[in-house]
Design a protein that fits this description.
Length: 246
């Protein structure tokens, strides 16, 4: 019911219609087709709207175009082609879409090829055959692309446009990936350079403090590098050497 005020704006005002006044929400104009203790249903010409009886403030009865339609339809004979066609046109002008369809279908029951009724109901004649609008597009050479009907040339142009956009996006993504890879390579190079600088500083510090690297054979464990303290004034000769495991 929260959408009711909006829906009321879509309902055309019907002269001399039943007026259903709602508490704080305007009114509905049409013909009351059902009224119970819980619900009031109003035919507004294009369909029915039902509202809770608790929302209805008051009802004012009046004659509506729906009443006029029923009266006029009741006077027509089943085979009155012109009469049903005229009634369909009148109903359309009054905004009674459902009743207009009803009258035009009466026309088609009498004359299936009647152009006025067919066109009013949305049919299109293609190659001497009446088709619905949707059916008429492929019959007229249209193709559907991305949910829309268009000429083959328009569809091809649309495909090329989509392909060009896809290629542009792919090239842009490739460029972004290359830039990211370049930045990562630069970061790795800076890291390697920093590690090499730290290692060089460590070696210089070791030399300054009198340490040097020497490969030592540790038996079954193989060779390894260790730091040997030196005796001041004796050069790089180790002051002592641990026993080699056997």
């Amino acid at each position: 019911m929260r959408r009711l005020p909006y829906l009321l704006l879509l309902v055309p005002a019907l002269a001399l219609a039943d007026e259903v006044y709602l508490a704080g929400a305007g009114k509905i104009s049409g013909r009351i087709v059902a009224q119970t203790e819980t619900t009031v249903t109003v035919d507004v010409g294009g369909g029915n709207i039902s509202v809770p009886a608790s929302r209805v403030e008051r009802v004012v009865k009046g004659r509506t175009p729906l009443d006029d339609y029923d009266e006029r339809a009741g006077k027509l004979k089943p085979q009155d082609l012109d009469g049903w066609r005229s009634l369909g046109s009148w109903a359309s002008q009054q905004g009674l879409s459902s009743q207009a369809r009803q009258a035009y279908n009466k026309v088609l029951a009498i004359a299936p090829d009647d152009a006025a009724a067919r066109e009013a109901l949305g049919f299109v004649k293609v190659g001497g055959q009446w088709l619905t609008e949707e059916e008429s597009y492929p019959a007229r050479g249209y193709v559907k692309f991305d949910g829309e009907w268009m000429t083959p040339d328009e569809a091809e142009a649309a495909r090329q446009e989509v392909a060009a956009e896809d290629a542009r996006m792919a090239a842009e993504q490739q460029q972004n990936d290359a830039e990211i890879a370049e930045m990562q390579a630069a970061d790795e190079a800076r890291w390697a350079e920093e590690e090499a600088r730290k290692e060089e500083e460590r070696i210089l510090e070791d030399e300054a403090e009198g340490r040097y690297d020497q490969a030592v054979y540790w038996g079954d464990w193989g060779y390894g590098v260790t730091y040997w303290p030196t005796t001041p004034g004796v050069g790089n000769r180790p002051a002592h050497r641990p026993a080699i495991p056997r």
